[in-house]
Specification:
The complex is a heterodimer. By secondary structure, chain A is mostly helical. Helix content of chain A is 78%, strand content 0%. Chain B contains 7 helices and 14 strands. The chains are: A mainly alpha, B alpha/beta.
């Protein structure tokens, strides 16, 4: 079954959506969209390093993403620049260095478009194994740490006062984001990872009455986007990554048309 | 770590400095089991910062904060902003940091008059409703140490008295220690054991009983519908509009803390009067 490229694409896409959905909720709740973008841009530097040092792409991207995340934490503590300015510097700085590194490696012929926008239709069985192994780890970590992660999201001081190690869970969330970026970079590309984190979560918000429900629905909407996008890609011969994102956006807009409190009716008892 | 019978929390000469500015400095305070300590002071005087130091949320830049071993704290922060993106109902908020049976959750919400809000979305609650829920959440935690940062903000007058009664009741029943930041400079809860007035440092502190005649105390706090309860301070220094401090000897410094050579009389006094406004006065001594 996995011998068919289209089936492989669907299996890989659904695997990614299952993880980006719940994690994307935390990205939206904590206003980390730009942070996700920064990690994705840093991923390009990771790809360049993997080619230079001849190590596995996913590993190199993961390490670079973590490094950038920790660098940001350190800079936030010392620098008086605002977070979004620091993010912008790290984001485009690592993107620029990554592109420069690729340009210097004249012996490497690289499909830059594939790197920026991914190629869901070129997924191998190894990629699928990596997505499902990494995805299972990330999902397990989210479920295990759900209560503290969510409490910290609602109010940091409250969570810290009542016994949660806020700094440790912040690092955990960064690790998980870096892992997701590393695993999905080859498939959806640098530019589109953040959209898979944010758009399904945004669409799920309007039809959710609780945080856990939103996380699950976000994964479902991500999955629907993958199915719809790949179908469109096959039918209209459009690039797969952008097609998936476009379908997610359509689902989000359709969600806007729903009456506000249809599913989230408040009740007095 | 503090042992049994020691205070729940003790701050010794604690202060927090951010970007070269002291938010609060030289705070000495201890909260015992079964004790209610109230922090009062003008805006920006370091009340919330002090409360966060006591909770261990902020690490003091100088001095020390010691909590009793295994201390279980509960916190009602001054501000909690629930974003639209966060679908959170009252029952979810009640279980935010704790596992809670339905019965316990109902009992806690009932005690603060918020039982009918159970299925409401948190961000649609009014200010007063939200405070009741937050208080219920903290009470349901059955803490040893309860920190309330302006717990009655946005609550109507009758509700305010009811919540103060509830806070006292929680203290009486569970024996927990309470550190409370008062939303109102003029008003201190009647059951308070110790009042600490902050203005970047501890201006004065003491038990209400020792600073007020017992008759005046009853008059002012027994019937809160009457005249405002006020503290009039006698200070040995004056706070200038730019935040600097002018001392009795005429010198001006950026900060004010004991032992800086400008304080001639270590004792400051607190006097309760029936009318007037909160004034900062220079002490002749």
């Amino acid at each position: 079954m996995l011998d068919d490229f289209f089936v492989r694409a669907i299996v890989a896409g659904l695997g990614i959506a299952a993880v980006t959905g719940p994690l994307g909720c935390f990205v939206v709740w904590r206003k980390l969209a730009y942070f996700g973008d920064t990690l994705a841009h840093a991923a390009l530097l990771g790809v360049a390093l993997s080619l230079l040092l001849n190590v596995h792409v996913t590993l190199a991207v993961f390490v670079v993403a973590i490094t950038v995340a920790l660098l940001l934490l350190a800079l936030q503590k010392r620098s008086s620049l605002s977070s979004d300015a620091l993010l912008g510097m790290l984001s485009h700085g690592s993107l620029a260095i990554g592109l420069l590194a690729l340009a210097f490696m004249t012996w490497v012929r690289l499909d830059l478009m594939g790197l920026l926008f991914g190629d869901l239709l070129a997924v191998s069985k190894t990629d699928i194994a990596l997505i499902y192994a990494g995805g299972a780890f990330v999902l397990a970590a989210i479920i295990w740490a759900w209560k503290p992660l969510f409490a910290i999201t609602v109010n940091r001081d409250l969570a810290a006062a009542e016994g949660y190690n806020v700094a440790a869970y912040d690092v955990l969330l960064m690790l998980l984001l870096a892992a997701v970026v590393a695993v999905s970079i080859k498939i959806v590309g640098v530019m589109l990872i953040t959209s898979l984190l944010i758009i399904p979560a945004g669409a799920a918000r309007r039809v959710s009455s609780g945080p856990f429900m939103m996380a699950v629905l976000s994964a479902v909407i991500g999955g629907l986007s993958v199915l719809g996008g790949l179908y469109a890609s096959l039918t209209f011969n459009t690039p797969s990554g952008p097609s998936v994102v476009a379908v997610a956006l359509v689902l989000f807009v359709l969600g806007l048309a729903l009456p506000v409190n249809r599913f989230t009716q408040e009740q007095n008892i | 770590m503090l042992k049994r019978n020691d205070p729940l929390v003790r701050l010794t000469g604690s202060g927090i400095c951010r970007n070269g500015r002291w938010l609060v400095r030289g705070v000495d305070l201890a909260v015992q089991s079964g004790e209610i300590v109230t922090l009062i002071g003008p805006n920006g005087s370091g009340k919330s910062t002090t409360a966060k130091m006591a909770l261990g949320v902020l690490k003091p830049t100088e001095g020390s904060v010691t909590q009793r071993q295994g201390l279980k704290s509960a916190y009602v922060p001054q501000k909690v902003a629930i974003d639209w993106t966060l679908p959170l109902r009252v029952d979810g908020l009640m279980r935010l940091t704790q596992n809670l049976s339905d019965a316990d959750m109902h009992a806690a919400l009932d005690s603060t008059g918020a039982a009918h809000l159970l299925k409401r979305e948190v961000r649609h609650l009014s200010g007063g409703e939200f405070q009741r829920v937050m208080l219920a959440r903290a009470v349901a935690r059955k803490p040893d140490f309860l920190v309330l940062d302006e717990p009655v903000q946005g609550v109507d007058f009758a509700g305010e008295i009811a919540l103060y009664d509830l806070i006292k009741q929680v203290r009486d029943q569970t024996g927990c220690g309470i550190l409370m930041v008062s939303h109102d400079l003029h008003m201190v809860m009647a059951a308070t054991d110790q009042v600490i007035c902050l203005n970047g440092h501890v201006c004065c502190q003491g038990t209400p009983e020792t600073v007020a005649g017992s008759n005046a105390y009853k008059q002012l706090f027994g019937d809160r519908a009457g005249a405002l309860a006020l503290y009039q301070h006698h200070h040995d220094h004056q706070h200038l509009p730019d935040g600097r401090v002018q001392h009795v000897d005429g010198s001006v410094t950026d900060n004010c803390h004991p032992g800086d050579g400008h304080h001639h009389d270590g004792k400051t006094s607190m006097k309760r009067v029936a009318h007037g406004s909160f004034r900062i006065e220079r002490d002749a001594g």
